[in-house]
Fold this protein.
Amino acid sequence: MKNPLFIVSSLILSFILGFYLNATLLVPKESEYSPLSNNQSNSPMENIKLGAFSVSLSVKDLNVSKEFYENLGFSVFAGSMETNYLIMKNEDTLIGLFHGMFEGNILTFNPGWDQNANTVEDFDDVRSIQQHLKDKGIKLETEADEKTSGPASLMLKDPDGNLILLDQHI
C-alpha cells in the first residue's frame, strides 16, 4: 500500500498546479474581452434609454413587506395600502410591492421617467424600443399598440425566464 502522505501530497500538488495553469494560461487577458466583436455593427438604438428602474415584487402580505423594507431604509414613495401596491424608495433605488396583482417578480423600466417619477425630455418611446427589440429577433410577451402615442407598455422575458416590463406613463 502506498504511503498516505505521498497520496495527499500528490493531490495537493495537482490542485495547485491545476489552479496555476487555469489562472495563467486558460483565462483570457483583459484586452481579449470585448463586448462587441470587431465585425458587429452598432444599431441605431445602441444606447436605449429605458428610464427609471425598479424591481416589482409580488408580496404575500403588503403590511409585512412594507415594514420589512422600511427597516432597510425605504420609505413609501407612491401607491397606497388601499390600492394593494406601494412604491418604496431608498435614495435612487425603487422597489414596488404588489399584493395580488401578478405572480413572480418583474424587472420594471419606465421610459420617460427618472428615479423620482419626473418626466425627462430625452427618452426613447416604448414603441421605438419595441421595434428595436423586434428587429433584433426578441420575442415579446405583450406589445404596445404601434398606432398610438403616449402611455403604453410591453413585456418580454430574458433568457432565464425573468419578466421585464417596459411601462411608459407619459
